Amino acid sequence: MDGIKYAVFTEKSIRLLGNNQYTSNVESGSTRT
C-alpha cells in the first residue's frame, strides 16, 4: 500500500513541478519580448 501511495504522490508532485516550470518559462518568455 505504501509503495502505491508513494508512486501516486511522486507522480502528482512531478506533474505540479512540470506545470510550474512551464508557466515560469512562459512568463519569462513574455517579459523578454
Task: Tell me what you see in this structure.
The structure is a single chain. This protein has 33 residues and is an all-alpha fold. Helix content is 94%, strand content 0%. It contains one helix and no strands. It has one helix at 2-32. The N and C termini lie far apart (49 Å).
Element-level helix/strand string? H
Largest sheet descriptor: none
Q: Strand share of the residues?
A: under 5%
* Rough outline: rod-shaped
Task: Determine the number of helices (DSSP H or I, runs of at least 4 residues).
Answer: 1
**Counted beta strands:** 0
- Uncertain runs with pLDDT below 50, 5 residues or more? none
**Helical amount among residues, as a percent range?**
over 70%
In angstroms, what separates the terminal alpha carbons? 49 Å
Please identify the structural class as seen in this structure. mainly alpha
Radius of gyration: 14 Å
* Mean model confidence by pLDDT: 81
